[in-house]
Specification:
Blueprint: H1 3-28, H2 32-35, H3 38-65, H4 72-85, H5 89-118, E1 128-131, E2 137-140, E3 150-153, E4 163-167, E5 170-173, H6 175-178, E6 184-186, E7 191-192, E8 197-198, E9 203-207, H7 215-226, H8 232-263, H9 266-280, H10 283-302, E10 305-307, H11 310-316, E11 319-325, E12 331-342, H12 348-358, H13 365-377, E13 390-394, E14 398-403, E15 406-411, H14 413-418, E16 432-440, H15 447-458, E17 477-489, H16 493-502, E18 507-511, H17 516-526, E19 530-532, H18 537-553, H19 556-559, E20 562-567, H20 573-578, E21 581-585, H21 591-596, E22 599-601, H22 608-642, H23 648-667
Parallel strand pairs: 11-18, 11-20, 18-19, 20-21, 21-22
Antiparallel strand pairs: 1-2, 1-3, 3-9, 4-7, 4-9, 5-6, 5-8, 10-22, 12-17, 13-14, 14-15, 15-16, 16-17
Helix pairs in contact: 1-3, 1-5, 3-4, 3-5, 4-5, 4-9, 5-10, 5-23, 8-9, 8-10, 9-22, 9-23, 10-22, 10-23, 11-22, 12-13, 16-22, 22-23
């Protein structure tokens, strides 16, 4: 508990202890000199009243002086002064003390709900250890780290900026960012993000981003701005309180004056007016609804999801359609060879070797996947790219690599058809197929030449460099086989989509620039409702516009259906901005996508999406419960008060009791943890 809260609690408890002691003495008649006379009794009860309520009285008087009096402090001040005026001293103190109990519960709950978000502030590293050219280590401020600097991350230290591991292995704790309690293993070549805590190993990393552009800085910026974006429900409550407070004040004045004139019994009606003021205090609404949304944002952050404002949390609760990009969102974003189909008489290693040699200089992800597959098939083998004297890229078809004595063809079916190569077509619709063929410029029976080339490919003196063919004529092209490459689906993608539908999402749609066969195969495997393929970035925006129009046409206003887009790339930024809710992948996503998005999934785990939808729905449900409960109880007690059927103690329950119950209801959001 914060020291300030602890001090306030001690003050309230002290005031309550004095108050209850006075009530015992008063009711038992042990001290008639004080409590049997009005003035001494008033002075005695003012002690606990001012002890706990001084700040409320001061705030009310300052509001009157500054001509901004219409708030709950004024209501409590006027109500308690009225109670003192009518001789109900004990009730006046009770109203103030229990009102402050409710206020304390509000601050405690708010502090508790902030805990998950405020903990993010602790992820900011205080220093960075930079390795200089002479091998010395200099400790600098993270703001002074430049891209390319070599940093030394000692065990237990926070990673100051986003970086790439150069050497060392360790377990990195990402809990503060992702909510994932299990540390992640990292080693050379892997990326690490700022704010994570290094485990027991020593890491040398190269900075890939400046501090102001790193993940930790982006997170803090999002958290600081989140409270500025209020939900429609919060805005309604704020506007309601501004109108509601003056109405109840003037109603209480009317209740005190008009019946007093008619009945000539001012004491009774002033007491009823004070009771009316106490119960009409809107703090249960003003506190509990924003607290529910703040608790929802806190629950989301503890589950590895950053929501940039409570308005987006409210939109998430009404999601009807989720639209997603494919590459890097539903898939891993890294291509891998899924299957190798050699032609009859051709070895698998031979097929991969020819393709790897032709693709040796390419930076395309498919080329890399082929080289990786060859390295896995023949451990220790090296590819001598110096053998490739020329490479021709055939647009939309593939490439042709020229080597001494041969040409290698790697590409799609169109390339094979263009050169009249007799090939066997692969039928896997979900994979990208690279067909491989070789043209010998001399008879392949010349084994010495073949062995020489094989030796350069494998780095094993030709031991694995057998002949390519069986004596075909010079200039003939032989089909070697097909290599199937596919972007691997994220392991959680299918379950995440199923969970979204369980949480009320009616339709899950995929937009991709990939070819139709691949997109439809992925859609069928994941159980998507609709797939649109071969789209350019601007066409994705147009498709989202069409889906939004479709929602409007089918009565979006009636069922408050909303549309969310999930993406990670730079080309997704326009679509993220256009959707009702943009959801970006925060770990591997581009800065542009994260900036344009309204919700950021910190560890790229798709299972976080149904979790945050569930949190959003529960948040809206709890805020609605608070509104309905508070209004019903208050209206009932207000009516009974007007007819003299209640007293100040019932009013205290109508105000403080309802507020505390609503606050406790809101605090249930803090218990939401990952269960999916």
């Amino acid at each position: 508990m914060e020291p300030k809260l602890k001090k306030e609690l001690q003050k309230i408890l002290t005031a309550l202890a004095i108050f209850f002691a006075m009530m015992v003495v008063d009711k038992t008649g042990l001290c008639p000199l004080i409590f049997a006379h009005r003035l001494p009794s008033l002075i005695a009860y003012l002690i606990p009243y001012l002890l706990c309520g001084y700040d409320v009285v001061r705030k009310a008087l300052l509001g009157i002086r500054n001509r901004q009096p219409m708030d709950e402090s004024l209501l409590m001040f006027v109500a308690t002064i009225g109670a003192f005026a009518t001789g109900e001293n004990s009730e006046a103190v009770a109203v103030m003390a229990f009102y402050l109990v409710g206020e304390w519960f509000q601050k405690y709950a708010l502090g508790k709900s902030r805990k998950n978000i405020a903990s993010l502030m602790d992820i900011v590293p205080e220093e960075a250890n930079v390795e200089r050219a002479d091998g010395s280590i200099e400790t600098v401020d993270p703001d002074d780290v430049e891209i390319g600097d070599i940093l030394v991350i000692k065990p237990g230290e926070k990673i100051p900026v986003d970086a790439e591991v150069l050497s060392g292995e360790s377990m990195v704790n990402t809990a503060a960012l992702t909510g994932e309690s299990v540390p992640r293993s990292v080693h050379a070549g892997e990326a690490v993000i700022s704010g994570c805590i290094n485990g027991e190993g020593l890491l040398r990393v190269r900075a890939t981003k400046a501090f102001e552009d790193s993940t930790v800085s982006k997170i803090l910026e999002l958290v600081e701005n989140a409270s500025e974006k209020k939900s429609k429900t919060e805005n309604f409550i704020t506007r309601f309180a501004r109108v509601y407070t003056p109405i109840v004040v003037y109603s209480a004045i009317a209740l005190a004056i008009i019946p007093s004139i008619l009945t000539r019994d001012p004491a009774t009606w002033i007491y009823r007016a004070c009771t009316f003021l106490v119960v009409s205090c809107p703090c249960a609404l003003v506190i509990s609804v924003p607290l529910a949304f703040f608790g929802g944002i806190g629950a989301a952050s503890s589950n590895g999801v950053l929501v940039k404002g409570s308005n987006y949390l409210e939109l998430l609760s009404h999601l009807h359609t989720v639209v997603s990009d494919k590459t890097g969102t539903l898939t891993e974003g890294n291509f891998q060879v899924s299957e190798v189909l050699p032609a009859p008489g051709v070895e698998k290693a031979e097929l991969l070797r020819m393709a790897a040699l032709a693709e040796g200089m390419s930076t395309h992800p498919i080329a890399k996947s082929i080289r990786d597959a060859y390295a896995a098939e023949v451990p220790g083998a090296e590819i001598n790219t110096a053998l490739v004297t020329d490479t021709v890229n055939v647009s939309g078809q593939g490439l042709i690599a020229t080597l001494p004595g041969r040409r290698i063809f790697v590409g799609n079916a169109k390339l094979m058809q263009a050169y009249d190569i007799d090939f066997t077509e692969a039928t896997n619709a979900a994979a990208t197929v690279s067909y491989v063929a070789v043209e010998e410029e001399r008879r392949s029976a010349d084994t010495s030449a073949a062995a020489a080339v094989g030796g350069n490919l494998t780095g094993s003196d030709g031991a694995d460099g057998g002949s390519i063919g069986t004596g075909k004529e010079k200039g003939s092209i032989r089909y070697l086989g097909a290599i199937l490459i596919r972007d691997q689906l994220k392991p959680e993608a299918k379950d995440a989509i199923a969970e979204m539908k369980r949480e009320g999402v009616q339709s899950v749609v995929m937009l991709t620039g990939d070819r139709k066969a691949v997109g439809e195969a992925v859609g069928q495997e994941l159980g998507l409702d609709c797939v649109y393929t071969e789209l350019l970035p601007q066409e994705k925006v147009e498709k989202v516009e069409a889906l939004l129009t479709e929602l409007d046409r089918h009565g979006r206003q009636q069922d408050r259906a909303e549309l969310a887009f999930v993406g990670d790339g730079i080309n997704d930024a326009p679509v993220l901005a256009r959707a009702d809710v943009g959801i970006a992948m925060g770990s591997m996503g581009s800065d542009a996508a994260i900036e344009a998005a309204d919700v950021v999934i910190m560890d790229d785990d798709l299972m976080r999406i149904p979790i945050v939808i569930r949190i959003a729905r529960r948040t809206v449900a709890i805020s609605t419960q608070n509104i309905v409960f508070a209004l019903l109880v208050k209206i009932l007690i207000l009516i009974l008060t007007a007819f003299g059927l209640t007293n100040m103690w019932i009013a205290v329950f109508g105000d403080v009791g309802v507020a505390v119950l609503c606050i406790l209801n809101s605090m249930r959001l803090l218990t939401i943890k990952r269960t999916i």
